[in-house]
Design goal:
- By secondary structure, this protein is mainly beta.
- The chain is 14% helix and 49% strand.
- It has 3 helices and 7 strands.
- It has a 6-stranded antiparallel barrel.
- β3 and β4 form a beta hairpin.
- The protein is elongated and about 50 Å long.
């Protein structure tokens, strides 16, 4: 028998400040983009810089090729998602940033907050996703 709705965890919308607070420690998030063959989602290590996230990938990888803009200084539409859930208590949160991603120039990279990727190998393509929209939800336990 399904639990009564009053026993179900409550879902609350998060404001921009709370979303940024939750993702501020950095860690692992997912970049969503169109790779030319359709939607793609890739996990990356990230750090937060203001209302932007920074991440690195390999120069030869699909993510780098897909996010490069043909226009100098241009941006590619992308999204970035971070979440944390506890399946036992059925609680957690999810934050979504949507905006434009661009590859950092050498000068921007030298001034950027450090991003330390977990996987080995070269990760010399640095990106900034500047959030135009930030939204999030939290699932509260009963």
């Amino acid at each position: 028998m399904a639990p009564e709705s009053s026993e179900q965890p409550a879902l609350e919308e998060l404001d921009r400040a709370e979303c940024l607070r939750l993702i501020a420690p950095g860690g692992v998030g997912r970049v969503a983009y169109d790779d030319g063959e359709g939607p793609a989602v890739v996990p990356v290590n990230y750090t937060v810089d203001g209302e932007s996230v920074l991440f690195r990938t390999s120069v030869s990888g699909r993510l780098n090729r897909s996010l490069l803009s043909a226009v100098t200084g241009g941006q590619v539409r992308a999204a970035f998602e971070v979440d944390h859930f506890d399946e036992g208590s059925r609680t957690g949160w999810s934050v979504l940033l949507r905006g434009g991603a661009h590859r950092l120039s050498d000068d921007e990279r030298d001034k950027a907050v450090r991003v330390d990727p977990w996987p080995g190998g070269e990760r010399e393509a640095w990106f900034r996703l500047a959030a135009l929209e930030i939204s999030g939800r939290r699932l509260l336990g009963t």
